[in-house]
Amino acid sequence: MPRVTFYFNNVGALFLNGATSPELRAPSIRGQLRYWLRAVVGAENTNLKQVWERECAVFGSTGQGSTVTVRMLRAEKADFVADRVGEAYMLPHRSDPRKQSPAPAIEDGTEFQIDALTRPGIPFPADFFNAVSTWLLLGGLGKRSRRMMGGLQVAEIQSSEGVSIPEWWGNAPAEIAPFIRITKAQLAANLAGKNLSPIPPPAFPVLHPDHAWVVVGQQGFDSAEEVNRRVFRDVLRKPPFTDPAKEFMFGYARGGRRASPLIAQVRYFDEQFYPVFTVMRSAMNVPRSPDTPPSARVDWDVLNDFMTKAMAGFKGVTVFGGPLK
């Protein structure tokens, strides 16, 4: 049976709700892979029906089984989870400890394993490899995974005989410079050979070079919490981003609900933590809330301003896309 086995450590606390305590489960992994597959496929084709068909061909639907099965092993055992559960802060950037939202979490640096399998004689689809690669480089897992929590560090990836995995999976980067090179190469390879004509702002987040900007910081920090504080206390909690007419551009939960177009993550190399920023533009409405002034409008230059500050403040380098025109 074709198999790929992933060994990870989490970077930053993992906030995942289980029945009685935080729990790593396969559905959480599949949800992330579906999200990143849509982001990759949508750069080529924004037709929702056709994107859904591509997604279902890999991960299944109510009408068809999944080509790829994802399984969690050790992490699903109650004794293992209990041994690694502590308390962490969901909002470490807040100066008042009472407002930092302590919550049960799987501790930073926990090792876990994921197995991906297909049925005998069924190869892994290329879309699966692209989704996994993009998630490993840019994404995270659990609550606050857009805010530098629940990042993933690849320790090792193994495959069964006859399964050809991406070259970098067998040699995961151990320093920030190779990570930057690999991220550039992988995001370019996702789109290789595709007809990427200019498109209007899409209905869902996509990694199209006209509608996405990915920056990796080359300045290292001593902890994931320190990176979080530097970004969200020293940048986002300062003007101009605290202006009510602008701050909703980073997501909102009143007057509707909208996830932030900014995915801020952390990766760990050589005992230092480095920020990774991904902005993906998609259709957005001004929230109808008493807290939102009449002057508020959708203004993607707000995100451009943030990414420009990230470039300057964290020795950032662009690895994909650029300013949102």
Descriptive overview:
The model is unreliable at 75-81 (pLDDT under 50). Helix content is 28%, strand content 21%. The strands form three sheets. A four-stranded antiparallel beta sheet has the order 2-5-1-6, with helices on one face. Helix 1 (26-42) packs antiparallel against helix 2. It is built from eight helices and ten strands.
How would you briefly describe this protein structure?
The chain is an alpha+beta fold and 325 residues long. It is built from eight helices and ten strands.
End-to-end span in angstroms? 47 Å
Strand content: 15-25%
Largest sheet, in brief, is: 4 strands, antiparallel
Radius of gyration: 19 Å
Query: Strand order, biggest sheet?
Result: 2-5-1-6
Task: Give a count of the beta strands, DSSP E runs of length 2 or more.
Answer: 10
Count of spatially separate domains: 1
Q: Please provide the ordered H/E string of secondary-structure elements.
A: EHHEHEEEHEHEHHEEHE
Gross geometry:
globular
